[in-house]
Write a structure and sequence with these properties.
heterodimer, A: about 450 residues, alpha/beta, Rossmann fold, 3 domains, five-stranded parallel β-sheet, about 15% strand, globular, B: about 450 residues, six-stranded parallel β-sheet, four-stranded parallel β-sheet, 16 helices, about 45% helix
Chain lengths: ~450, ~450
């Protein structure tokens, strides 16, 4: 009977109660967040699916819905590619449905849109994203995609992540599900090595992948495919032949790696490439997971070389950062991964936010920061007091917290994804060091909120 | 006049510059003081909108969502999610107004917004803005109409000194302020509806956008109907004149398609002189007119030899095209987001409703592009130069303080464009000379 159910729609409930997800352990309230009306921030499932898949620059990304779903969002993903063809990550495709499509179905329009995209842009695949409106009107995007694939011989992949099914994390999982179901395992690689890995959840934001990929390659570790930073459709189709899945800073894609372990026997490990310590630990963890004694030895040597090189370049910064204290207000695994990078620079992290962190993240934050550090559960209201109590010199947070820093007259650095620079890998630490130095030495934070001449 | 194509004729948008109707509604509500715009849709509808305006204005944006889920989409007619939202918003802040606006999702499922609104006691204005209809301009206009219809108290007397100003959506905050002050300089009291000039004008405020800070107040909205005149600027907001006249038929309505360039501003000044019964304008107005005249002569040589592609909302196209035409700029192609009655009046060789794929295909027609930040990448692809105007602009800071209107802004606009055209030609000359040098070296 199972085979008769042809819909590629993932079972949302299953994805929500992902057994490997830390959020689902010890929670009475139920699985990953249900949004509260009038008190919700953050993107929807469609946003998450776009974040997860848009880095595939050789695939077209066609949003089947109205303009809100992509109008302000296309060409905003800072995920560069080395794909020599037209960069489709930065190309917006939308069916821009109108009243007619709502009443009489938008399937024909979608089919024609797929024809247009394939004829004019020759993508390696077309991801077709349903949206709230077209999900509600019941457009059968599975059928339209199937027919499109048959008509053109180009995989058309339905992505069932309409915004109303949940938040970004869920959309990211759904994207993983779509790739797992429609692309992975659809092609055999020409050759394999014992050291083939997939990087899952590495989106190459601001080029972060490029900060460490060459080091893996130097060791003979081959990145067979990425999901999805600087990704290629042809490579992800062969991902089932990798020896190891490396999940990079992305809890949301655990479903994908767990299923790949079940289906293809690929083990997985979780890594972070923020800061020197984490980058070293991660590269070593990959080598150890691949289990080759020679590889491990060579990896240790490479790490020693890179750390020595970096330490030397950091010398001028040490004096600037000596005795400096920072308060960190950011979400999820960043609560400890950025903390680790700051510690590498010799900055004491006196507080971090654990508002959106899992229990494991909280434990890790405690472990990295030590017993005296403050783990803020409500950073927006806490951080001003924390800055006073700790005498912090620097606040790293999202733009909304800027005013707190100005009020407290301490330096501020925006840690959010809008940042245009990569802080990943060994060399990223130098970029972070330079940015923090500039923040600490910038007079603006001290100056801007000074009293006006007419204020007493 | 121009050849106009009002339909795209394609099954999709490729590299769209069109923005949605709920986005226009959000922006309009942000021009009301201490307002919480509440988008009735999935959380992403509000999130995408919030991110866009946050990045454009470089300011935190107040916006909440009813966070409709797949479950509430089926089981709820909007009663639960809207009332629950208002309760939750009230737990944290005390808005002077909640601006409920719908999306494609909630319009498709057919929520009875009016019915829900009638049961709510909090100060609220509602507007239906499905995103499968209209665009940024219509969302803005529908919201302004809703504010007046639902808040403004009918009145029978008029105050000849009071003017209600309704700007179109593409006018940046500083432009609204300049226009308001311009009219005030003729002795009028002006209420701008909406008024982004005090809410999203890039000022350092104490509050971090828990509510909109600045803008027209609810009390001012309630008392609009004693105005002597309503001035609408932009074809998209023209219907607002009649909306206000329903509250008081004695209000005079004066419409301008734009207030850009010499002629456009002259028309406004002529009306202001007549209405204020003055013979001469304030000295500063005269001075700026002379500066614009000079700017026109200084820029005509450069702009007069340049072919333009304009990419914008219809009212913005009309304004920019008029300014450029006055100094001989050849507007070869104007690409509008949506259809509008004003398209037929735009001073361009060709006007189409379309996207940036169209712009790319017609690359041989133009030299300089004026449009939102997406035209920057377009310019790179087609080897042209772009000047950033319109929503959204993520590439540059200071968009909110960019002034293109009236005599003053008109001069700045011409300088910006002429300088961009000159830099483009300089760079062409430079490349040509480099080629000649290389050929010389090779020979």
């Amino acid at each position: 009977m199972e085979g008769l159910l042809v819909s590629s729609k993932p079972k949302i409930k299953e994805l929500l109660v992902e057994s490997a997800c830390e959020h689902n352990k010890g929670h009475k309230k139920g699985p990953c967040n249900t949004p509260t009306p009038g008190a919700t921030t953050g993107g929807c499932a469609l946003d998450g699916a776009q974040i997860a898949l848009f880095p595939f620059a050789d695939a077209a990304h066609l949003i089947h819905g109205p303009m809100s779903c992509v109008g302000g969002a296309w060409e905003t993903r800072l995920t560069p590619t080395s794909w020599p063809g037209r960069d489709l990550t930065q190309t917006g495709f939308a069916t821009d449905i109108n009243t007619n499509d709502v009443v009489f179905s938008g399937e024909k329009k979608l089919a024609e849109a797929i024809d247009h995209v394939i004829t004019h842009y020759a993508p390696e695949a077309v991801f077709v994203y349903s949206t709230c409106v077209t999900a509600l009107t019941g457009d059968d995007i599975d059928a339209v995609c199937r027919q499109g694939s048959e008509r053109h011989g180009t995989p058309c992949v339905p992505v069932h992540a309409p915004g109303f099914v949940g938040a970004k994390n869920l959309g990211s999982r759904i994207a993983g599900e779509a790739v797992l179901r429609h692309l992975i395992g659809t092609k055999e690689p020409e050759d394999t090595t014992p050291f083939d890995i997939n990087l899952i959840g590495e989106h190459n934001n601001t080029g972060e992948l490029w900060r460490y990929r060459h080091l893996l390659e130097e060791l003979g570790i081959r990145v067979r495919s990425t999901f999805s930073g600087d990704g290629r459709i042809a490579s992800i189709r062969t991902a089932h032949r990798a020896k190891l899945n490396v999940i990079v800073c992305a809890k949301s894609l655990i479903s994908m790696t767990r299923k790949m372990e079940e289906q293809y026997g690929i083990p997985w490990i979780s890594c972070s490439f923020y800061g020197m310590t984490d980058t070293s630990n991660s590269i070593l963890a990959i080598a150890e997971a691949l289990g080759d004694a020679d590889l491990i030895a060579r990896t240790r040597a490479l790490i020693a070389r890179e750390e020595a090189r970096l330490e030397e370049k950091l010398i001028p910064y040490r004096a600037v950062f000596a005795g400096k204290k920072a308060v960190l207000n950011t979400g999820g695994n960043k609560s400890w991964s950025i903390a680790s990078a700051l510690q590498d620079l010799g900055i004491e992290v006196v507080a971090t936010s654990v508002r959106k962190s899992t229990e494991a993240d909280k434990a890790k934050a405690r472990q990295y920061l030590g017993e005296d550090a403050i783990l803020m559960t409500s950073p927006a209201s806490q951080q001003a007091q924390v800055i006073d109590d700790t005498g912090a010199h620097l606040l790293l947070a999202g733009g909304r917290s800027l005013y707190t820093a100005i009020k407290k007259r301490i330096a501020f650095t925006d840690v959010n994804q809008e940042k245009k620079k990569s802080y990943g890998g060994y060399d990223g630490l130098l970029v972070l060091a330079e940015d923090l130095k500039n923040s600490l030495q910038n007079p603006v934070f001290e100056l801007v909120d000074r009293k006006a001449p007419w204020q007493k | 006049m121009a050849e106009v194509r009002r339909k795209t004729g394609k099954p999709l948008q490729v590299n769209p510059h069109k923005l949605s109707q709920p986005m226009g509604a959000t922006l309009a509500f942000l021009g009301v003081d201490r307002c919480m715009p509440l988008m009735h849709g999935a959380q992403g509808c509000a999130s995408f909108t919030k991110v866009m305006f946050t990045r454009h204005f470089c300011e935190p944006i107040a916006l909440q969502t009813t966070a409709v889920t797949d479950v509430t989409a089926v089981l709820d007619g909007g009663d639960y999610s809207i009332t629950e939202s208002i309760k939750n918003i009230g737990d944290k802040v005390c808005p002077a107004l909640i601006g409920v606006h719908t999306t494609g999702l909630t319009e498709t499922k057919g929520d009875d917004l009016r019915g829900v609104a009638s049961k709510i006691e909090a100060p609220l204005v509602y507007v239906n803005t499905p995103d499968y209809q209209g665009g940024l301009e219509s969302g803005w206009t529908l919201t302004v109409q809703a504010l007046i219809e639902q808040l403004t108290e009918p009145c029978e007397r008029t105050d000849a000194r009071k003017v209600v100003l309704v700007p179109h959506v593409s006018m940046q905050p500083i432009e609204v302020e300049k226009l308001r002050e311009f009219i005030e300089a003729f002795g009028f009291e002006v209420v701008a509806v909406p008024d982004l000039s005090s809410s999203l004008d890039n000022h350092l405020g104490e509050k971090q956008a828990s509510l909109s800070g600045g803008g027209v107040t609810v009390a001012e909205l309630e008392g609009l109907a004693d105005a002597g005149a309503v001035v609408t600027v932009g074809a998209s907001v023209k219907p607002v004149g009649a909306t206000l006249q329903k509250k008081n038929p004695a209000i005079r309505h004066r419409h301008f398609d734009h207030v850009s360039g010499l002629v456009g501003t002259d028309e406004l000044v002529a009306w202001l002189l007549e209405t204020s019964a003055r013979d001469t304008p304030p000295a500063v107005v005269e001075r700026w007119r002379k500066r614009l005249q000079d700017a026109m002569l200084d820029s005509h040589f450069s702009i007069g030899q340049t072919r333009f592609l304009l990419v914008a909302e219809p009212d913005h196209l009309a304004a920019m095209a008029a300014s450029l035409r006055e100094v001989g700029g050849k507007v070869a192609l104007a690409i509008a987001t949506v259809d509008s009655p004003v398209l037929g009046d735009i001073e361009a060789d060709r006007v189409i409703v379309g996207d940036l794929e169209d712009a790319e295909q017609l690359r041989d027609d133009y030299d300089i592009i004026i449009g939102n930040f997406h035209t920057e990448a377009l310019a790179h692809r087609v080897g042209k130069r772009a000047v950033m105007r319109g929503f959204p602009n993520y590439e540059e800071i200071g968009s909110a303080l960019k002034n293109d209107v009236l005599y003053e802004g008109g001069a700045y606009f011409l300088f910006d464009i002429a300088n961009a055209a000159e830099r483009m030609r300089e760079s062409e000359v430079h490349h040509a000379r480099e080629r000649i040098k290389q050929q010389g070296a090779a020979a």
